[in-house]
Amino acid sequence: MTNLDARFKWVMLVSGVLTCTMLYAFVAPQASLMSTFGASLEGPVAEIVVRNWGALIGLVGAMLIYGAFAPAVRPLVLVVAGASKLTFIGLVLAHGRELAGGSARIAIAVDLVMVGLFVAYLARARRRPA
After folding, report:
1. Helices (H), 21-73
2. Domain ranges of the chain
């Protein structure tokens, strides 16, 4: 394991734990929507969709934690997590200022930092000899 791999393990662990905090949406969907976007959705379909969203994001966080300890799967994990985070960022920004305020703005900033670190790691890993 190189020095970069050892340090990146901690990046992935922190990223994974932060991403897992979205399991809150699985447990308390309305409260999660209010804290993130300042709005909520009503009805049983909204409950299912938001809970599923929270579970899927939590699984991405778990993948990041797993990838921290399993270097062989890191590229796949980082690509999936990065794509997920970029999709979230793009969707929120596409809807304008009404959704990109408060906690959503913080989530966008943190996700952008994570994606930047993921891309840097993947670019460097690609140049490393096998």
Report:
1. 24-27, 29-37, 44-69
2. 3-127
